[in-house]
Amino acid sequence: MRHPTYPAAGLAAVLVASVLTSPAPAAEFGKIELSTVPQLQAYLEDRGYLQENSELDLFHTGLAEPASGISDVYALQYLDPGSCGSAGCTEIVVTRSDDDSYLLYEEWLGTGMEMLDSETEGAHDLLIRTDQGVLTGRFNGTKYLWSPASDKGESGEGVTAQAAPAVPRLGQKTIRAGGADGLVETMGECVDDRVWHGYSEGTDPGGGAMGFGPCRTNKSSNFLLFSCKPGAPDVTIDVNLASRDLDDSDPVTVTVSLGGSNFQFKGTALYDVMVGEVLPELEPITLDHPIFEALRTADGTGSISINGQTTRMTLSGAAGAAGMMRKACAAPLAAPDSQP
C-alpha cells in the first residue's frame, strides 16, 4: 500500500492541522472508581466525607463541555453503615470548577441512586429514593433540580417526572449521641459545604447552642456560635472568622444580616494563641434577643460582617437550630438541694 508523501514543511503543517481538528477524547460518564479522581478523593477526605471504612458508588454525570464555570459533576451514594440511618444513606453532589476547585453543594439521605440515560444541560439525570419519595434530578447548568418521579423499576427505565413543583432537598435531620441524656445535634441541608447546626447538651452538663459552619464539624469549630446554659441569663457569642483588618485590642463590630434586618454585636479583637489568629471577643446577649426569632423564621441567605468584611452564609437549618437551642437553654436550673 502506497502512502502519500509531503515536503518536510508540508508534513508539519498536516500534522498540526490533524491535532487541531481531531476530536478530544470522550469523557467517561457513568459509575467510576474514586481512585481515578484523586483530587476529588482528597477533597472528600479534607471535608470529612471519606473515612477508612467508607463505601460508596461514584457517578460521573457530566459535563461534556464546561458550562457556567463548571467542568465536571459527580454524584455519590454512600453504602457503609456509618453513613446510613433510618431515613437512608448519605447522598451528595460535588462539582469541579474550571479552576480545578471542588464544591459540595447538595446532600440527601436516601438509597438506590441511579444515573439515567437522559441528559439535561450536559449532565445525566439522576434518580434517588428518599423519605420524600422517588425523585428525579435534572441539571440546570449550575446544579440539580429535583421533582417527584414515578418509580417503574430498579433500572430507572420508564421513570418519568410528574407534573409537580420542585421539592426541597434534604430537610432537617437530627443526630443523637450517648443515649437519651446525651448530646443531640440537628442540622439542615448542606449547601456549599455550609449549614446551621443546633445542639442540646442533655441533662449533664445541660444547655444548648446553635452555630453556622461546615457541614461536618464539631461544635467549637463553627464560624459563628451562640451558646447558653439552662436558666442562665447570658448567651455567649464566638466568632471563628479571622479578619485581615483586625489587630489585637482593636474595637470590633460584627454584623449579622438576616432577611433585611441587621444585628450588630460589639466587642474587642483579641489574639488567640491556640489558633494563632486575631478573633473578635463579643459581649454576651440574652436569650430573648431578636436575632433568635429572626433566625427561627429566616430563609434563603444572609451574611456575617466583621468591621465591614463580609461573608455570605446559607440559612439552611437555622430555624431548627434556633428552636433546639432555645428549648435547651430555657430549661430551669436544677433545684439548690439537687446541685452538688
UniProtKB/TrEMBL annotation:
Span of the signal peptide: 1-26
Keyword set, alphabetical order: Signal
Protein name per UniProt: Lipoprotein
Annotated organism of origin: Pseudohoeflea suaedae
